[in-house]
Structures are given as C-alpha cells and as structure tokens.
Amino acid sequence: MPSDKLRVLAVGAHPDDLENACAGTLAKFARAGHHVIMCYVCKGDAASYELTPEEIAALRAQEAKEAADVIGAELIAGLGLGDSQVYVNEANTLLFIDLIRRTKPDLIITHNPEDYLQDHMNTSRLVFEASLFSSTANIKSQYPAHPVIPPIYYMEPYGSLNFQPTEYVDITDVIAIKREMLSKHRSQLDFMKRHYGDDMLERMEAVARFRGIQANVRYAEGFIPMLRWPRVMTKRLLP
Ligand SMILES: [Zn+2]
Q: What is the pLDDT of residues 199-233, one digit of tens each?
C-alpha cells in the first residue's frame, strides 16, 4: 500500500506533453509534499523549422528542466529515443520497465491510449505493459523488480477528442503555475503556432475552463483511471 506521501510518475512522450495535460495536478501533488517525477520519452528532436535535431533536443531539454523546476519535480530527460521512434517492441518495453523499477511509483499518469500521435499512443501502451512486468523478477533489466503494480491514470489527449474524463482535479488555485510551466516551452509555443496554427497557452486554458465547467469549478483537469486488473484501487489517489 502507498504511504501517505506518494511517488507520482508522470510519463509524456515529448517535452511539454505533461505541461499541456496534467501540470496542474502535478503542481498540486508537489505542493502537498508528494514526490513528483516528470519523464519525457523522446528527445523532442523533430519539432523545429530552424534548428538541427541536436540543437532543438538540447533546447527542449533546457525548457523541460525549467518547467520541472517550477514545482520542484524530479526530471527524467528522455529515454534515448528520437521523435517518432516509440515502437512497442521488446527493447522499448525494457526501457519502460526500468523507468518504473528505478522510480518506484505509487501511481502513474500518462497518455490516453487514443491520441493524435503514435509516440503518445505507444507510450501509453508501453506504460501499460511495463506497469505489470516491472514487478516480475524473472524479467531481467538494469534494475531489480519493483513489487508494486501501480494504478494508471490517462490524461487529456491533445485536442481532447474522444475523451470523457471520469475523475477531475480542481486546478483553479494552480492554473497560473500550469501556465508558467507550459510557457517555459518557448520553442514549442512558436512551432505549434507555425506548424498547426495552435496557440498552446490559449488551448490549454480553454480545455481547463471546459473541464472546470463540467466539474463546477473554474479550472480543472480530467482523467480516466485505467480499469484493468490488478491496478484498480478503492481509494482516490488524485488530489
Ligand atoms: Zn507529444
């Protein structure tokens, strides 16, 4: 059973995914004294018009560090994969098993199984697979087995399509912190606007307001708990 201080592992495919979808919840976890670990899987080396893959990856690592520092979260800066390289295979499953074994989470927040990018959907799938096999000692990896099989919460997909939350977190008192964290991703504020016509900050606040309307608060984040045995819990873990 988890202690009253939780180890919260949030896994996004790219730097900025967590800041878009669940940074308010992470800020509330951190404020309550829980240990928050923010991990992004890919280097973020694709999303630039001007910079080389190496240059944009280095810049995005810096932006992710600045965002994690806003709430004092531990940052795991990539699992060594490039953008578009998150495949569900044995090697990547072991990467995720080791991520869970070394961070020992009581719960995991990650992408919804349906989202707009393969990297997101496969990250979700790999977390799902690894959350169980990380407990199995006969599967050998760099780190020893972690006995806890953590529950998983799926976060809002980009664009919010086909996603109906069943749990909500009131982020009204931390919306400014979420905005600050997302604002650290300066390269992506520019890239998303140029590539998709998407204003990340405006969209994030619109989604938070819409989920807030659903939950009768000003701003909220929505989640769907992953209901697959044996990761179901009787108590609410979200703040
Ligand atoms: Zn992403």
A: 999 999 999 999 999 999 999 999 999 999 999 98
235 within a domain of the structure (yes/no) = no
Q: How far is the CA of 119 from the centre of ligand 1 (A)?
A: 7
Residue 49: partners with Cβ closer than 8 Å, 6 or more residues away: 191, 194, 195
- Could you list the residue range(s) of the whole structural domain that residue 143 is in? 7-222
Cα 1 to averaged position of ligand 1 atoms, centre (Å): 32
Neighbouring residues of the ion ligand 1, judged by CB less than 5 Å: 13-14, 17
Domain count, the chain: 1
What type of residue sits at position 109?
I
- CA dist 105 and 56 (Å) reads 30
What CATH number does the domain containing 99 carry? 3.40.50.10320
